Amino acid sequence: MEKRVLIYAPTGQDAALASKILTMAEVDNLVVATASELAEQLLVGVGAVLTVEEALLSGALRTLGEFVKFQPNWSDLPIVLLTHRGADSPGVRQAILSLGNVTLLERPVRTLTLITSLQSVLRARDKQYQVRETDRRKDEFLASLGHELRNPLAPIRTSMGLLRHQFPGDPAVTKVSDVIERQVTHLTRLVDDLLDVAR
């Protein structure tokens, strides 16, 4: 799992101060200077993004919006946004609507508040990665189970055909082979459904 916090605050001292605080708290972080660098680093991997209200106008909203729009279903990238007036500005309201998983921290932010907020969103991000891994293992198990169940069906069907061929008029063989045929057909459908779910 990527635990790194990307910090995008292109003006003022917010980026340097936040990085210093997070480094002291042993939270892996990287300051990015431009929206294009933010976009590149998002693709490398990220645990959370820390940005400021002013950065929304300098490309952060568009860059983050594109990333959030195309992130996988299991992912819900946490974004911590430092604001001056809470959700009162139009840019912040737009960020909340378009980015989804946004935590607002009103400035000035206390050091402990910043650290605990980011640790909290990183824990939630870790849970997302755990859910993704559990789903991946479940899908692998279902695919493996489906193939293991499918393998014996062909010999059973072939054996049933041979039995009918060797005893063509025997009513007992016909009755048993009809039961086997129905059950093999039913089991084949169930295995196909299982493989569809795994896909």
What attributes does this structure have?
199 residues, alpha/beta, 5 strands, 62% helix, rod-shaped
What does this protein look like?
The protein is an alpha/beta fold. Helix 2 runs parallel beside helix 3, helix 3 runs parallel beside helix 4 (90-99) and helix 6 runs antiparallel to helix 7. It has a five-stranded parallel beta sheet, sandwiched between helices. The two termini are 24 Å apart. Helix content is 62%, strand content 11%. The longest helix is centred in the middle third of the chain and has 40 residues, at 111-150. Helix 4 links the parallel strand 4 (79-83) and strand 5 (102-106). It has helices at 14-24, 35-44, 60-69, 90-99, 111-150, 153-166, 171-198; strands at 5-8, 29-31, 48-52, 79-83, 102-106.
Q: Indicate the overall shape.
A: rod-shaped
In spatial order, strands of the major sheet run 2-1-3-4-5
Classify the beta-strand content into a percent band: 5-15%
Number of strands: 5
> What summary fits the major beta sheet?
5 strands, parallel
Give the integer mean of the pLDDT values: 87
**What's the helix-strand series?**
EHEHEHEHEHHH
Q: Could you list the spans in which at least 5 consecutive residues all have pLDDT below 50? A: none
Radius of gyration of CA atoms, rounded to a whole number: 28 Å
Span of the ends, CA to CA: 24 Å
Our count of helices gives 7
Helix content: 55-70%
Structural class computed from helices and strand pairing: alpha/beta
